[in-house]
Each structure stands twice: as C-alpha cells, then as structure tokens.
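Ops channel
N.P.: pipeline sanity check, posting one input/output pair.
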C-alpha cells in the first residue's frame, strides 16, 4: 500500500495514542492475552508525552496517502553509540500491508547515515514483530524475563544486600553512569539519565549504587506514571548491585502494588532470588540489534519507557 512516512507532529498526538492502544490491545487479545491498556482511551498518550518532553521530534508516522489515516507510528532515539527504536505500532486495519517495514526502513536509514547500530526490545511471544525485525537484519542477542512482583504493603526492608550503598542519583553522577553503561553494554544514554534525575514530568526516578571506593557500580531508573509503571533500565557490574537497586526502587515506589521489571534470563541466581520473593513471569523479551553488538559484561535490563535495547 502507498504510505508516506513523515515526522510525527503534535497534531497527530491523539490519533497516535489511539493507534498504539488499539494496535497493542488488538494483538494481545487476538493471542488470548489480556489487553495492555484498559479504560482511558488516551492511556497510550504517555509515549508521546514522555518522548516529546525527552527529545521532541523523534517520532514518525506512516500515513495512508489515499485516506489520510495513520497506519502506523514509531519512536526512535539517537544516542552516542546507537539508535534506539521505541514503541512500533501498526493499526490492525493495516497489519501485513507493509506499514511496519516502511517505518523500520526510515529509522534504519537514519542510523546508517550515522553508521550506528539500531537496538530494540521485542516480545519473544510476538512472531509478527520478531519477523519484522529479523527480516530487516536484526539479530536476537539476549533473552529477558518480564517479571511482576507484588510488593508487600509493609515494604521489602528485609535482607536487601547492599541497600546501604544505594542512593538517589544526581546530575553529578551522569558522566559516571555513562562510563559504566559503556563498560557493561557498549552504549550510553546520558539524555535519559538526566531526564529521570531532573524529572520534569514528576514520575521518574534514578538511583545509583555507590561502592566503598566511591565508584558508581550500578544505576536504575523507574517510572510511576499513572498510565505506565516499571522499574528499569538497570545497569550494574554484577547481580549484587542490580538486586540492591531494583529492590530499592520497588520498596520505595511500589509498596502495596505490582511492579514490572525485566531480568536477563542468564542471570539465573538473580532470577531465582526474585522467584523466592514471589515474582512471576508474565512475558519474554529479546534484545535485538542490527549492526555491531558487544556482549553484556555485567547486568543490563531494558525498559519500555524510555525504551532501551
Ligand atoms: C509487528 C507489527 C508492527 C508489524 O507491522 P506490519 O505492518 O504488519 O508488518 P509488515 O506488513 O511491514 O511486514 C513485516 C515483515 O515481516 C514479514 N513476516 C511477517 N510474518 C512473517 C513470518 N511468520 N515469517 C517470516 N516473515 C514474516 C513480512 O513478509 C514483512 O517482511 P518484508 O518487509 O520483507 O515484506 C504489527 O503487526 C503490529 O503493530 N503489531 C501489534 C503491536 C506490536 O506487536 N508492536 C511491536 C512491538 S512494540
């Protein structure tokens, strides 16, 4: 079908929110799973809201040139070492018509101009997105378990190894956070850390793990927006720091409610400790990279907002 791929404008905002919600809810319902968004038809506006505040102009849409309807939308995040691909959606009326590929080609083209890899996090349960990405040269590099833990109302104050070394991140930590992420994952995202620390929307938070030597050995971001709650991304030298950071965030912001976080499936001891606390698997995701990839040298957990790969 003929589509025009063009930058997303503020005038597209409501239609994009509706498109994301309809697309995801339709796909999950079709595959016998509960919808991602319920109730408020503007719930998925959280993506435009956050990305517009983080870096305006990083959204694109595929517009049906015949009807003018938006067939698909996607966000992208240029960073020093890579381009991140954010939430990708096609309206169910346009599934299988090439809208997803058109959006993807546009973002791959931008990344190729800068000679950067493209990274994303895609559902391992979703053959449609898996096929879209792998047909366009992406390679699955890491499996993540999406886990949900219902945090007790009284908190997780017991047995948090290393909790004393976790503190709020400040803007002075940004350079060290970037250095750590380059060492662990080969990428960095200063813009995202700053955004969580400065917290202009009032729903993000960032913590760091400061070792005795004063080095920053881990950090975690979290989001408690009314439409989207999650702990991550988390980057840490080892499971020890990652566990302290994730539990710290759960304990502070998620008491008495369920919290979502992703863990690398090969960090088996960390996964087992979360099972011991009652965490349940709800989905699997893949880190997919098109272009150069450095194997993780530590723990790196993704998030869906800001999206990381
Ligand atoms: C995933 C999604 C974005 C795909 O968009 P789409 O417009 O339907 O995809 P396209 O029509 O462009 O086709 C995708 C490609 O995968 C290929 N493909 C699809 N199913 C395939 C399969 N089972 N095996 C191999 N290739 C397959 C298609 O041939 C096409 O390749 P091509 O561009 O080389 O022809 C869309 O299904 C969607 O929005 N789903 C719900 C939300 C979602 O899953 N979002 C992604 C994660 S956030």
């Amino acid at each position: 079908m003929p589509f025009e791929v063009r930058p997303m404008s503020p005038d597209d905002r409501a239609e994009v929110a509706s498109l994301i919600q309809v697309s995801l809810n339709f796909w999950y319902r079709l595959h016998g799973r509960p919808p991602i968004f319920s109730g408020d038809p503007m719930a998925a506006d959280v993506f435009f809201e956050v990305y517009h505040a983080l870096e305006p102009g990083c959204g694109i849409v595929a517009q049906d040139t015949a009807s003018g309807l938006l067939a698909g939308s996607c966000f992208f995040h240029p960073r020093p070492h890579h381009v991140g691909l954010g939430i990708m959606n096609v309206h169910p009326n346009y599934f299988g018509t090439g809208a997803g590929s058109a959006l993807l080609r546009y973002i791959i083209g931008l990344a190729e101009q800068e000679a950067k890899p493209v990274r994303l996090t895609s559902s391992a349960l979703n053959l449609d997105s898996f096929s879209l990405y792998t047909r366009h040269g992406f390679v699955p590099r890491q499996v993540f378990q999406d886990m949900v833990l219902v945090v007790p109302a009284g908190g997780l104050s017991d047995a948090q190894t290393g909790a004393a070394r976790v503190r709020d991140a400040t803007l002075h930590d940004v350079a060290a956070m970037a250095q750590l992420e380059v060492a662990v994952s080969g990428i960095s995202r200063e813009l995202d850390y700053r955004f969580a620390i400065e917290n202009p929307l009032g729903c993000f938070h960032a913590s760091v793990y400061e070792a005795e030597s004063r080095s920053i050995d881990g950090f975690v971001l979290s989001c408690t927006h009314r439409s989207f709650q999650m702990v991550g991304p988390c980057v840490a030298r080892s499971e020890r720091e990652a566990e302290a950071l994730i539990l710290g965030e759960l304990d502070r912001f998620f008491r008495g409610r369920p919290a979502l976080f992703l863990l690398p499936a090969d960090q088996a001891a960390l996964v087992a400790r979360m099972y011991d606390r009652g965490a349940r698997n709800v989905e699997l995701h893949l880190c997919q990279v098109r272009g150069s990839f450095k194997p993780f040298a530590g723990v790196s957990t993704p998030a869906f907002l800001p999206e990381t790969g």
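N.P.: looks fine end to end. The chain has two domains: 3-116, 145-301.
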